[in-house]
Amino acid sequence: MYVRCMNDIPSSFETAKKRRLELHDAMAGLEWALARASEATDWRVAVIESLHNLLSAYRSHSDEVEAPNGILNDLLVDAPRLSNYVAILKNDHMTIMGDLEALLSDAAEIPVSELREIATSLLGDLVRHRQMGADLVWDAVNLDIGGHG
Fold this sequence. Notes:
single chain, mainly alpha, 5 helices, elongated
């Protein structure tokens, strides 16, 4: 393992950092919508809108980091020993994307308590996914791509 110089960082790392911030903001938006009083007339509308925003941010994240010039391929060049972790992250992308899409398709109909439970569980999955991604980058090149800000 080696430490990169700041001017030796591929653009994929900066793009990944930007997508992480967008994903974080979309996650915070969903958490905010879920935490509101469910009796509010626009509660479900706000949750569904937040789910759409989250799906869009997650799709952008997934597409960007898995692109041929994305961070996951750059990491494999620097640290092929971490290929199993890259595979786990890619699998997470498919699983979480499917879970988000399924929840969105049911969100207008399922009971509030179930919607909250499933969405909160998905937020936990996303937090773990983001943590694993940050740890992977650190393990590969000793670079912290950050949380928020």
